[in-house]
Amino acid sequence: xxxxxxxxxxxxxxxxxxxxxxxxxxxxxxxxxxxxxxxxxxxxxxxxxxxxxxxxxxxxxxxxxxxxxxxxxxxxxxxxxxxxxxxxxxxxxxxxxxxxxxxxxxxxxxxxxxxxxxxxxxxxxxxxxxxxxxxxxxxxxxxxx
Length: 145
Hints:
Largest sheet: 3 strands, antiparallel
Structural class: mainly beta
Shape: globular
Number of domains: 1
Strand content: over 45%
Radius of gyration: 15 Å
Strand order of the largest sheet: 2-1-8
Order of helices and strands: EEEEEHEEEEEH
Number of strands: 10
CATH superfamily: CheA-289, Domain 4
CATH architecture: Beta Barrel
Number of helices: 2
Helix content: 10-25%
């Protein structure tokens, strides 16, 4: 039996990415984050969102980007209280999850630790973000400080 999932198709940190809609609170206009002196690696800073401080992910630190990243225009807010800066939204997709799951992301991909796999979108395979893996990696980075 296959299961259907709704995914948000976006551009983030210079590449296409799929984000499970079930893991999102909302998508809002991006606001520049205020950096935190001595803040945890992987966090760009915080923004004031609905009266609370919301940590904003630093894609460069998470993926080992060497140069500047394209500017964000929107931000996906994960249910577990993390902002993901996004360059732009492409749309939503309803996809069937094959019984065998999606193809594993290549080991050499710097995003490998935060991906759930690759999903076929048209003629290309687009990486699927795994929010649980992303948050686990952020917690490991904080402990390693």
